[in-house]
Amino acid sequence: MQREPNIKWTESQRSRLNSAVRKYNNAIRRAMRANPANAQFMPEPVSYKEVKAEIKSARVLNNTVARLLRATRKGALDLTTVGEGGIATRYEVREFQIAKAVNERRKSLRRKKLGIDYGQTLGRMGTLQQNNLLPDKRTARDFSPIALKRFIKRYEELSATSSYERLNRYYKNYIKALDTVFGGYSEFDAAIAQIARKIESMMKSDAGKLMEFFESGDELLNIEYIYAPEDRADKMGYILDRWAEL
User: Fold this and answer.
1) Which pTM was predicted?
2) Distance (Å, whole) CA 88 – CA 157
3) Cα–Cα distance for residue pair 63/65, rounded to 1 Å
4) Residues of the chain with pLDDT under 50
5) What per-residue confidence (pLDDT) applies to 152?
6) Which among 64, 148, 152, 230 counts the fewest CB atoms within 10 Å?
7) Which pLDDT score, from 0 to 100, does residue 7 have?
8) Contacts of residue 9, Cβ cutoff 8 Å, sequence gap at least 6
9) How far is residue 161's CA from residue 115's CA, in Å, rounded to a whole number?
10) Is 216 helix (H, G, I), strand (E, B) or coil?
11) What pLDDT shows up at residue 124?
């Protein structure tokens, strides 16, 4: 896994973003002036400063500029119906479709990698991971306007997160879980520190393998919050042994 370089913000990059933000906001204002009754259904104008603060890499900049400029296309801000009798712009419906397609491709790759087969209905018998990776059959008509906006926002936040940021979040959440379950017992302090050192070492030397592991749903990642006193040491022993094997 290559570390995604942080954006340096050249004058050209700032100009590109500023132009895209200006064109986006102008398109919304023109649509509002053309039909004031539709103003309540328009996306909110955005702030250059706030949008820029969310951009951490050139990849995210390119995606953000493309997203903003899609609102300026002919007919993008026309209105259409969505779920629950709601109204949204065609631009938002298109952004939902793009976000959903990207998410479904990601899930498809994970299913293939994990060998998950949906040839038969899993229902309540599927694992949490299997159910999380189920194909999403919903369309924009299954969402209210507010839910549609939330879906798009979640995708924007995810796409703006680099692989290393996700990996660091996995690491922090895992150590936090260990601290919550085992941290109140001094006999486990050294073990938790040992695991933290192992993960930190892998983040530097084999981040790709570590990311695959954190996204694999391996049993080692399941830290339950209730263990009988006699089971606690056995569980920690198992965890230490498994991390030593990686």
Assistant:
1) 0.68
2) 21
3) 6
4) 121-126
5) 93
6) 230
7) 87
8) 52
9) 26
10) coil
11) 43
